[in-house]
Amino acid sequence: MAQGFDLDNVDGLCRIDSTGMFAALEGLPAQCRSAYQDLAGQVELSEIEAISNVVVTGLGGSAIGGDLLRTYAAGRLSTPVIVNRDYVLPEFVGADTLVFAVSYSGNTEETLSAYGEARARGASIIVITAGGKLGEYAKRDGVPVIGVPGGISPRAATGFLFLPTLQVLQRLGMLPGVADEVNEMIGNIKELRKKLGPDAPERDNPAKGIARKLHNKIPVIWGTPGITGVVAQRWKGQVNENAKAPAYWNVLPELNHNEIVGFQFPLEILKRIHVILLRDGQDHPRVQKRFEITKKMIEDVVDGYTEVWALGEGILSRLYSLIYIGDYASVYLAALYGIDPGPVKAIDYLKKELQAGKDN
Ligand code: F6R
């Protein structure tokens, strides 16, 4: 089988990367620092009170930050956090809901529609955007806006789109201090960057190694409801959008009750599947045991599996270490397919077709 691209050819990697995905990955620690320190510190929160639930509404790269918040908040916040990826909001949304309406471009129609619903229900709203119509509407309506820097892909802006939500909940007194965890996470990914970046040779670079294993295979990515489920979803999305390839995700223990039964037919397709097991030392011991049993059940059926362990102590470090490895791996996988990781023509086409015939 063709080896594809030389992943140690740094100039070649930069040449296929027209939108600066590598630069955005390199800049992630600085992005997280600025997102946490600068973006949400000034936003007006004085009118927000008596919040009983939090909804993050957005799509794609703008929604995943909501899942990160949901995951982070699960063990720390008594208030439920729900992620909404739709035109409409759940029925419970009302005056006691804090809605983060998140759209990097500010022009995603589902998010604009959900924003309108949140207004009509009298919810407290905070908009996170780099501009667009959402920015205009928020300004018109006097809704607080967290403005994020433009010019990168939404999926490369998770720091900008997620960390301000933590800062807001902290300022509202809903979350205890998270600054130490943010600092630990930034230090952790800075260290990791040395191993994952284009200059680190393939033989010592886990992200290049994973890309090589996923090349010409169908990635199936498994996490857990703890912290790695959201990462599995993120890896899947990054393989789709950066490498323009299919990928699928699920979580244990749920997949032990259905998906695992489906590893019998058709054998020729199962042989093309490479399973990524996202591991976290803090997962429930019974889930750890399930991983060990599940590995034995699939090892002779699929192409192979690779375990990737979360690094660090705090939830943020563990989450972002795995996200960083997956983000880099997806961009190297794009290189192996000889495709520019940046443009997402299929998404642009859908948005354009949906826009046709609409006035605004
Ligand atoms: C593109 C990307 C997409 C967008 C999605 C919503 O990089 O990641 O998943 O995030 O199409 O668009 P925005 O984020 O502008 O609301």
Give a structural overview.
The protein is α/β, with parallel strands linked by helices and 360 residues long. A 5-stranded parallel sheet has the order 2-1-3-4-5, sandwiched between helices. A 4-stranded parallel sheet has the order 7-6-8-9, with helices on both faces. 46% of the residues lie in helices and 13% in strands. It binds fructose -6-phosphate.
Features of the shown structure:
360 residues; alpha/beta; Rossmann fold; 2 domains; 5-stranded parallel beta sheet; 4-stranded parallel beta sheet; 14 helices; 9 strands; 46% helix; globular; binds fructose -6-phosphate
Largest sheet: 5 strands, parallel
Extended strand count: 9
How far apart the termini lie comes to 49 Å
- Beta-strand residue percentage: 5-15%
**Helix/strand structural class:** alpha/beta
Helicity level, as a percent range?
40-55%
Number of domains: 2
Total DSSP helices? 14
Strand order of the largest sheet: 2-1-3-4-5
Fold topology:
Elements: H1 10-16, H2 21-26, H3 28-39, E1 53-57, H4 64-74, E2 81-84, E3 97-103, H5 109-120, E4 124-129, H6 132-141, E5 145-147, H7 158-171, H8 179-196, H9 206-214, E6 218-223, H10 228-243, E7 248-251, H11 267-270, E8 273-279, H12 285-298, E9 304-309, H13 315-336, H14 345-355
Parallel strand pairs: 1-2, 1-3, 3-4, 4-5, 6-7, 6-8, 8-9
The protein binds fructose -6-phosphate.
Residues 58-62, 103-105, 108, 111, 153-155, 241, 344, 347 line the site of fructose -6-phosphate.
